[in-house]
């Protein structure tokens, strides 16, 4: 029996007609792209269920938790430390921004040549279609790229619960001090929101929950390195996307259960590919739900994606937080250490990102790298050429793709990706 969530959506203030349209598009895309795949691991059943209930059961869990006094904090960037959110017993949800919505309205507030991710975040707000955003007691924006920075100024006028975190652009001693000051300011804001005070035990517990999620994702990433890929890139991307809004313990258990199954697949030589399938690493801008456009094209062109160098992927979830300190200051320092290693293109210089791409390509036995950039994203577009030069100097073929969330360039992308896949064979 399916549950009718309409009263809940209405109470959250969603525009029901627009929301129905969004769910219709999401369901159609999911059916076409995901459910048409062959030989999927049975452990993906859990993730299929999460998607089928993405605006239903998970949102109900948040609404029920709020009724019991818990708070919900939404975030747009992997720099916002979930460990601190969990330490005040709040729920941390990533706000996905992976589909075009209400673009005509958005372009009344933002220039047309703004990246799709920023426009999507604004469109979801203007059209009132995101239950996570409407559920959130506090929404955290961050000063990363110029587009996001300026968009939060506009969004701040539309929302009374937007909190903006400043971030360094340089990984210097001063940059580290700024990040620490901002994490302490976020800690205070989270404490004020919830009325809870973070102590060493609470922060250690938050660190442990998030470290466990990251360890499970590292296990999944390593299993994809096998010569006989036990899981498609699309399915692995889905787990990376759900990382941001599922219950952390249930998510970790589900990824570990999936990995147990994948280990058996590897032992038994069960694969989603054959020995000649080209292996591709995707690198660049984050792919938020339901942005499956490029991976669907790549895998329907006869290649398999073996890793994502992306914030919805390894850039976002690698590296654990050292929880050995016995005081709050030491634990905050450990958080700063871990987060400052994120090699987002907003940093200058950012050469460690190229090193990371090379390491990932080698570990995953990639035959080629697709550099994926959203149109009008200057930080990632600017890094494309030096990275291409370095990778090609090591003999690794690369392809540059600049696109957005529309379907208009599908044919052209398909042709270019197919040609690249042929080259790798
Ligand atoms: S840590 S990648 S999640 S900022 S695509 S909005 S950069 S113009 S998303 Fe990001 Fe945090 Fe960095 Fe990761 Fe700007 Fe580019 Fe748009 Fe982007």
Give an overview of the whole structure:
Helix content is 53%, strand content 10%. The chain is built from 19 helices and eight strands. It starts with 5 loop residues before the first helix and ends with a helix. Double cubane cluster binds next to helix 7, helix 9 and helix 18.
Outline of the structure:
The chain is an alpha/beta fold and 425 residues long.
Could you tell me which ligands this complex binds, including any ions or cofactors?
Double cubane cluster
Rounded radius of gyration (Å) = 21 Å
Biggest sheet statistics: 4 strands, parallel
Range of helix content: 40-55%
Mean pLDDT across residues: 97
Number of strands: 8
Give the overall form. globular
The main sheet orders its strands as: 2-1-3-4
Structural class: alpha/beta
Low-confidence stretches: none
Tell me the β content: 5-15%
Number of helices: 19
Features:
alpha/beta, four-stranded parallel β-sheet, about 425 residues, 19 helices, binds Double cubane cluster
Question: Topology of this structure?
Answer:
Layout: H1 6-11, H2 16-33, H3 44-52, H4 57-67, E1 72-75, H5 82-87, E2 91-94, H6 103-106, H7 116-127, H8 131-135, E3 138-142, H9 146-156, E4 162-165, H10 173-194, H11 200-223, H12 233-242, H13 248-267, E5 279-284, H14 293-300, E6 304-309, H15 314-317, H16 328-340, H17 351-363, E7 368-374, H18 378-393, E8 398-403, H19 410-424
Parallel strand pairs: 1-2, 1-3, 3-4, 5-6, 5-7, 7-8
Helix pairs in contact: 3-12, 10-16, 11-13, 14-19
The structure holds Double cubane cluster (BJ8).
